[in-house]
Specification:
By secondary structure, the protein is α/β, with parallel strands linked by helices. It folds into two domains: about 30-135, Spore Coat Polysaccharide Biosynthesis Protein SpsA, Chain A (Alpha-Beta Complex); about 135-255, Spore Coat Polysaccharide Biosynthesis Protein SpsA, Chain A (Alpha-Beta Complex). Helices cover about 30% and strands about 25% of the residues. The protein has nine helices and eleven strands. It has helices at about 60-70, 80-90, 105-115, 135-140, 165, 215-220, 225-230, 235-240, 260-270, and strands at about 35-40, 55, 55-60, 75-80, 95, 125, 155-160, 175-180, 185-190, 205-210, 245-250. The chain is globular.
C-alpha cells in the first residue's frame, strides 16, 4: 500500500538499540510471522534508491537490519533488480526476485510470499517499506498489536498530529477512526484533507501494515475501488470491501527516504547513533 510520511521531527530516544526484549510481542520462531520488505529500483526522485549508501551499507540492508532488531520473525526482502538482490544476499539476508511491473508494494510482497512460503505456513505478514532505514524497531513491533483481536484483518500505525501545518497538508494522509482505547483506533476512512472537523485530535497515517495472510490474499485480488481512485489511497480499497483495519497509535513518524535531502538526513541520524 502507499506510504505517506510527513515532515515532523523524529524522536530518537530509543532508536535502534538492541534492548527490545519484553517490549510488545516476542520473536516468532514458528515461521507464522514474516517481515517482507519490498524494494523497487526505479525511482524518479532518487535513482537507485535501494542501493544508496548509508553509513557503509545499502539503504535496503539498513532497513533489513531494523527489521532484524525488531525481532518478530523471518525477514525476506522482495526485489526487482539483480544488483539489489546481490547486495541483500551479500549482507546475509533472505531475498527473493519479483516482477518489475508491480503497481504497489502489497502486490510485490504477495508475489514474494507465494514464492518463499508456498505451503502457507506464514499467518501474519508485516510489510515494511524499503525506504525506512531509520525506523525504530519498536514501531515495527507495534504494528502487530491490533492483530491480537481476531476480528481485525489488517493493522497499521498512526501518530497524533501536533504540527498545525500538517493538519491541512495534503501530503500528510490522515486516519479517521473510532477510538477503541488510548492507543488504538478502528479505521473508518483515510484522507488527504483535514478530517474530521471540529475539536479533537487528528492523526497522521504511517504506511506500515501487518496483514493476516488471508486478508493480504483477498486484498490483492480486489479491483481498485471508487474512493481509492478519488483519494489515491490504496488502503481505502480494503475498507470499501468491508475489511477491518485497526490502527495502533505510536509516538514517532519514521523518515521515508524519497529525495537526496532525505538521504542526507538518514545518514546523519544513523551516523549519530553509530549503527
Amino acid at each position: 500500500m502507499q506510504h505517506d510520511y510527513g515532515s515532523r521531527n523524529w524522536d530518537l530516544l530509543t532508536l535502534l538499540r538492541g534492548d527490545l526484549k519484553g517490549l510488545g510481542m516476542n520473536k516468532d520462531d514458528s515461521g507464522k510471522t514474516v517481515v517482507l520488505i519490498p524494494a523497487r529500483m526505479a525511482s524518479t526522485r532518487l535513482p537507485g534508491k535501494p542501493l544508496a549508501n548509508i553509513c557503509g551499507l545499502p539503504m535496503i540492508v539498513q532497513v533489513a537490519k531494523r527489521a532484524q532488531e525488531a525481532d518478530v520473525g523471518r525477514i525476506i526482502v522482495a526485489v526487482d533488480d539483480q544488483r539489489t538482490f546481490d547486495a541483500v544476499a551479500a549482507a546475509g539476508f533472505e531475498v527473493v526476485m519479483t516482477r518489475v511491473d508491480h503497481q504497489s508494494g502489497s502486490d510485490r510482497i504477495f508475489e514474494a510470499l507465494s514464492k518463499v512460503d508456498p505451503d502457507g505456513k506464514a499467518e501474519i505478514v508485516i510489510n515494511v517499506q524499503g525506504d525506512l532505514p531509520t525506523i525504530d524497531p519498536q514501531t515495527i513491533r507495534a504494528a502487530l498489536r491490533p492483530l491480537d483481536n481476531d476480528a481485525v484483518d489488517i493493522a497499521t500505525l498512526t501518530v497524533e498530529i501536533e504540527d498545525e501545518a500538517e493538519k491541512t497538508n495534503p501530503n500528510v494522509v490522515k486516519v479517521v477512526g473510532s477510538p477503541l482505547s488510548d492507543t488504538r483506533l478502528r479505521a473508518l476512512y483515510f484522507t488527504r484533507t483535514t478530517a474530521p472537523h471540529g475539536a479533537g485530535p487528528l492523526y497522521h497515517h504511517i504506511g506500515l501494515y501487518a496483514y493476516r495472510r488471508s486478508a493480504l490474499e483477498r486484498f490483492v485480488k480486489l479491483s481498485p475501488s471508487t474512493l481509492e481512485k478519488r483519494e489515491s489511497l490504496e488502503q481505502l480499497r480494503a475498507l470499501e470491501a468491508g475489511m477491518r483495519i485497526d490502527v495502533e497509535i505510536v509516538k514517532t513518524v519514521p523518515l521515508g527516504v524519497d529525495t537526496p535531502a532525505d538521504l542526507e538526513k538518514a545518514r546523519r541520524i544513523l551516523s549519530a547513533h553509530s549503527i
